């Protein structure tokens, strides 16, 4: 990501590693469910230890900290469990555990009775002292004695009943043709009360994404899992590794970059087709696993480091990226690569066609644009803008020069204008693009990012889709799903894909 330089910062240095590290991915399906989640850590989270000594000299959680995390939206049972398991590992580790346990939900069997198929034990505020006092007192069965007496043998019956329901769902999915391990993992993810349609969509989404989430669940396995669930996770991971050894998602090969070669970038970077141009033959073959829905769409910067595109392609059925420069769709360059399994026929551009020259996009700049500035389009829009000190240096250099300025001054000014995408707004005066002007160039509606700080607006826009480019690719879905479609969007950012679908009149 580019290093942001504020107006108050006197430095004009700029890192050009990547102009968009917030890559986006989306998966589209005609039936099922959609979901999204965002989580952030609290900057004021407690320090390294979340425990206090109780009357027995043993460490227990602070009641105030328990309530603090409960105020953040975490259930009390999960907070207590995470604090105990976290020990003295610090606030970041605690938050990670809380988020993990919250994602696992009813599939997490914790020591105080919060188990799949069991009703969580409600604890009143008056019971806090008892819980803290008995925090480390566990019976032979590994269950906290603070609540052991409140759970009788009926818990085992509930668990067996829940497992029979789970097995019934798994059996139904297997009869529909899904592998048993993927069916079991879908029930684990969505819960045994989820409908069959939700489970089916979960399996499709998992297959599209490479089931990375489920593969990583083993990182969190400890004694808090029920033995049966733990065995299922481990067995499923073993089966998946065996099944994906070079087939399901393409030849995996070593992932250390030793065999990766730089991805050749086409010139010109026009993708598989452009609007209003004759369609040229494209040699793109999709494996059978990637044909048809669910459709997926992944974006990253074209000039990614060596081996990045090869690795991404390897995990997405070895599909080759479609490299496109958005300068063919708007008045700013944006070199991006897109890996997708969308059809290539019947693409259509968004209307009205956006201007492709600076003078057309911002006609008020014509009056001040000097003849020695040959720019007709902006460079790739970045995540930050120039400093006020640099703008003043340019103004002073031009004011103290002749008209036209000498070549040395012209070279200095043009280099800075190209680097920072500066526009002429007055006599000898340049300025960075305003956030609403960047929104216009990127295809977003006016004030789409309004409501956050200017710095955050620039950062978000610099990491976003160019909507017109993306909409051209997604336009093939309009006739395929006239009644609308379900969308699973990962790393949505400011919602470039969703805006593109909305402008295409595709209901989400």
UniProtKB/TrEMBL annotation:
Residues 58-101, 165-206 form the UBA domain. GO terms for molecular function: DNA binding; methyltransferase activity. Residues 1-60, 135-154, 225-264 are annotated as: Disordered. InterPro entries: C5-Methyltransferase, SAM-dependent_MTases_sf, SAM_MeTfrase_DRM, UBA, UBA-like_sf. GO terms for cellular component: nucleus. Residues 25-45 have a biased composition (Low complexity). Residues 282-508 form the SAM-dependent MTase DRM-type domain. It is found in: Nucleus. GO terms for biological process: methylation. Keywords: DNA-binding, Methyltransferase, Nucleus, Repeat, S-adenosyl-L-methionine, Transferase. Residues 9-24 have a biased composition (Acidic residues). This is SAM-dependent MTase DRM-type domain-containing protein. The lineage of its organism: Eukaryota, Viridiplantae, Streptophyta, Embryophyta, Tracheophyta.
């Amino acid at each position: 990501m580019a290093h942001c330089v504020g107006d108050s910062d006197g430095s004009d240095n700029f890192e050009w590693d990547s102009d968009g590290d917030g890559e986006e991915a989306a998966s589209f399906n005609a039936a099922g469910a959609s979901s999204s989640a965002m989580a952030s850590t609290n900057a004021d989270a407690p320090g390294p230890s979340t425990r206090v000594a109780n009357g027995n000299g043993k460490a227990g959680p602070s009641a105030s900290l328990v309530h603090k995390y409960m105020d953040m939206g975490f259930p009390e049972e999960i907070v207590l469990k995470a604090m105990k398991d976290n020990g003295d590992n610090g606030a970041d580790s605690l938050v990670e555990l809380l988020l993990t346990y919250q994602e696992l939900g009813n599939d997490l069997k914790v020591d105080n009775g919060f188990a799949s198929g069991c009703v969580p034990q409600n604890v009143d505020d008056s019971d806090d002292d008892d819980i803290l006092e008995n925090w480390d007192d566990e019976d032979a069965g590994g269950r906290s004695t603070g609540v052991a007496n409140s759970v009788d043998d009926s818990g085992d019956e509930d668990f067996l009943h829940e497992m029979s329901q789970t097995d019934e769902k798994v059996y139904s999915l297997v009869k529909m043709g899904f592998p048993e391990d993927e069916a079991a993992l879908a029930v684990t993810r969505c819960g045994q009360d989820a409908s069959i349609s939700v489970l089916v969509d979960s399996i499709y989404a998992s297959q599209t994404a490479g089931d990375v989430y489920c593969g990583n669940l083993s990182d969190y396995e400890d004694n808090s899992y029920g033995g049966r669930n733990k065995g299922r996770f481990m067995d499923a991971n073993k089966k998946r590794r065996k099944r994906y050894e070079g087939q399901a998602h393409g030849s995996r090969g070593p992932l250390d970059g030793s065999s990766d070669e730089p991805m050749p970038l086409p010139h010109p970077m026009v993708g598989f087709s452009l609007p209003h141009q004759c369609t040229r033959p494209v040699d793109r073959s999709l494996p059978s696993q990637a044909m048809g829905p669910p459709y997926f769409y992944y974006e990253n910067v074209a000039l990614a480091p060596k081996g990045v595109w090869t690795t991404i392609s390897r995990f997405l059925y070895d599909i080759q990226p479609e490299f496109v420069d958005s300068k063919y769709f708007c008045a700013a360059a944006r070199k991006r690569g897109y890996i997708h399994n969308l059809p290539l026929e019947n693409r259509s551009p968004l209307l009205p066609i956006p201007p492709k020259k600076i003078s057309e996009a911002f006609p008020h700049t014509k009056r001040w644009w000097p003849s020695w500035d040959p720019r007709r389009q902006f460079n790739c829009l970045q995540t930050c803008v120039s400093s006020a000190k640099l703008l003043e240096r340019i103004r002073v250099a031009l004011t103290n020069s002749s008209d036209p300025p000498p070549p040395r001054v012209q070279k200095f000014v043009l280099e800075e204008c190209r680097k920072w995408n500066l526009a002429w707004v007055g006599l000898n005066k340049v300025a960075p693009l305003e956030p609403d002007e960047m929104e216009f160039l990127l295809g977003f509606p006016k004030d789409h990012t309004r409501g956050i700080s200017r710095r955050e607006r620039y950062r978000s826009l610099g990491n976003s889709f160019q909507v017109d480019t993306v909409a051209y690719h997604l336009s093939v879905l309009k006739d395929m799903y006239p009644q609308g479609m379900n969308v699973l969007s990962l790393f949505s950012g400011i919602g470039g894909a969703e805006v593109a679908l909305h402008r295409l009149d595709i209901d989400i």
